[in-house]
Amino acid sequence: MIYTHKVQYYETDKMGITHHSNYVRWMEEARVAYLAEVGWDYARLESLGVISPVVAVNVSYKKTTTFSDVVTIDVGVDEFKGVKLKMKYSMKNEQGEIVCEAGSEHCFLDGEGRPIRLQKTYPEFYEILKTAAEKD
């Protein structure tokens, strides 16, 4: 899935360059949009008592971006084996150049912080993630 973000002025630093922390925020925006597109948005997950914390993030910056640049984020499932979800992100500028490559890892917990076995509890969601991992 492709998600588009326009760099906002407040996301830049004194040098006029996008602050590095914002790329992680864009990853979240893209991930939230991805889950909504596959029918399992955060509102649905939370209504079921499911939380999905970030357990790891890795980011590799390739080029800078500045105010009003349009960044496209190709987001997808990198790996899913039932417990941990690994997402991947490739961010490009308007010239098609990669500005950032990144990944995030997530787990799924119930309201009491216990791991959820998606295959048993939410088999439809499990299959969507498993199939996406196989395709991407």
Shape: elongated
Separation of the first and last Cα atoms = 10 Å
Low-confidence stretches: none
Q: Which strand order does the major sheet show?
A: 1-3-4-5-2
Order of helices and strands: EHHEEEEHH
**Number of helices, counting only DSSP H or I runs of 4 residues or more:** 4
Measured as a percent range, the helix fraction is 25-40%
Strand content: 25-35%
The major pleated sheet works out as: 5 strands, antiparallel
Rg of Cα set: 16 Å
Number of strands: 5
Average predicted local confidence, pLDDT: 96
Quick overview of this protein structure:
The chain has 136 residues and is α+β, with helices and mostly antiparallel strands. Helices cover 29% and strands 30% of the residues.
Chain-wise SSE layout:
Layout: E1 2-6, H1 21-37, H2 42-47, E2 54-61, E3 70-80, E4 85-92, E5 98-106, H3 118-121, H4 123-135
Antiparallel strand pairs: 1-3, 2-5, 3-4, 4-5
